[in-house]
Amino acid sequence: MDDARAGAVFHALSDPTRRQVVQALAQHGSLSASAIAADLPISRQAVAKHLAILSEAGLATSTPAGRERRYDLTPAPMTDAVAWITRTGAAWDDRLARLQQSLNRP
């Protein structure tokens, strides 16, 4: 995952409302902005703005359905972000293990 894409995913997921939108899409599948807004204390227009940010990060896709658009979760960028976190965490784990070994030497 390149830095720009990772940054977009982390930015998109940094907002608690967007995390709620992601959770709704994960639980219910394809939803309209109106359906998502019905379960949140914000307007459909606000949900649409959050969905645009999620779409820019590659976390959601939309398809036309009559007069509205239906949104689906695209989890692949989250997998890439988790891989980035895992790699970064592993590097710190290695450093801490070496430090512990150094401290335990007589």
UniProtKB/TrEMBL annotation:
SUPFAM superfamilies: Winged helix' DNA-binding domain. Pfam families: HTH_20. CDD domains: HTH_ARSR. It comes from the Bacteria. Residues 1-93 form the HTH arsR-type domain. This is Metalloregulator ArsR/SmtB family transcription factor. It comes from Paraconexibacter antarcticus.
